[in-house]
Structures are given as C-alpha cells and as structure tokens.
Amino acid sequence: MTQPAKWTIVSICLTVLAVLVPWAHYGDVDVELSRLPLWWAYLGAAVVMHACSRVARPVAAVFAGVAVVAAVVVAVGYDASAHVFEHVAPTAVPRPGLGVLFAVASAAAQAAGLRAHVRATRSVPA
After folding, report:
1. What is the C-alpha R_g of the chain?
2. What is the pLDDT of residue 26?
C-alpha cells in the first residue's frame, strides 16, 4: 500500500468519526452534525474531497480547504439553539464537540496524502 493511500484511509476514517461523534453539547444533550445549520455543506465537501482523491487530485486539494471552511462554518452554528432544537431549548451553555476536530483532521490527513503523492511522483535526479 502506498503512502498516499494510507493517508486517504486515515482521512476517510476521520470523516466517519466526525459524522458519528457530537458536534456540540448542551449540558447533557449531545448534538449531532445533522442537527446543525448547513451540515450538508461539510458533508458534501468531504464526500467530494474523498471521491476526487484518486482521480482529480487538484480538485481534492481545493475541496480539502473547502471542507475545513465548511466545518468551521457549521461549528460556529452550534450556538443557534433555535435551529438545533425544534421546540424547547435547554438553558445550558453550549460548547463545541469533537466532531469539528475530527473534520479538520480529516481534511489535514487528505492534504498530507495529496502531498505525499506529489512527492512520490517527482522524478529523482540522477
């Protein structure tokens, strides 16, 4: 297995973790990614980033940056309790969850895999 492929696998695993773990906490209430405003922006950017990692590496590199920006935008929306909760919002102070960390780490791992591919394809001067 090549070095870029290993980074891609790590990146995909981190994206799965980002989707599974909470992105915010309201006291004892965990808030998943799908309950936050603009959650589809991060998920779409991550899917395109992973889908293009083998066939269109420049597109994957651009979407790695887009995924980071989308994760931060989604993460900022954790404080919008009117969007997160339908009827009654808890009075606890919200705090961000680990999902954001995994999302950013996923994009960083994908970028590292793309960089490893570029380094591996360079010709070695004789």
Report:
1. 17
2. 77
